[in-house]
Amino acid sequence: CQPVCRAVAECGVWSAPGPPNQVLCNEYDAGGGIGKHLDGPLFYPLAGVLSLETQATIEFSPCEGGGAPCRVLLMPRSLLLFSKDAYQKFHHAIEPLTSDSPPYLNGAALPRGLPAEMPRGRRVSLTVRCVERVVDDDAVIISSAAAQERRRKRAQFE
User: Fold this and answer.
1) Which of 72, 112, 142, 157 is found 20 to 30 A from 32 (Cα to Cα)?
2) Percentage of residues in the chain with pLDDT exceeding 90?
3) At 148, which CATH number?
């Protein structure tokens, strides 16, 4: 986790007050996707998606008011950062498709000569974020039995 967080922070595009401190690794089989979602309030409103092995199309759709989704092609070894309105006011998803085809919002930035339809293979995604809000374990009200069990588990690591 630390080498990835450090590399993203040092490349000069990470704009959160602190460096990223979480990397979530997901593997998707050919044709795999992830449903429409928001990343939520535990994180600083900036996320990075590092795509590895094959491409996929991520769609951003407005949370309110409808409207057409924006489609961005994630090429292998690419890093997509999204923040502000894109993070807070748009759901994002990757449809479970076996191939990707235009149009793409980032079409002008893509290599020339891409095929009109690109089959998807296995994809690994590293999602990089900054966890901001955590609950202090000691602030949570729990039963005495649960507190005793927590102390027992912690003692195993000391």
Assistant:
1) 112
2) 69
3) 2.60.120.1520
- E strands within the chain? 22-28, 34-37, 46-52, 56-62, 70-74, 78-83, 90-94, 99-100, 118-119, 123-129
The enclosing H or E element of 146 equals helix 144-155
Whole-angstrom distance, CA of residue 62 vs CA of residue 9: 28
Which range marks the domain in which residue 116 is found? 2-155
Q: Give the whole-angstrom CA distance, residue 124 versus residue 78.
A: 12
Angstrom distance (rounded) from CA 136 to CA 114: 49
pLDDT digits 0-9 by tens, 50-59: 999 999 999 9
The residue behind tokens 């000691």 is 138
Number of structural domains in the chain: 1
Judged against a pLDDT cut of 80, whether residue 144 lies above it is answered with no
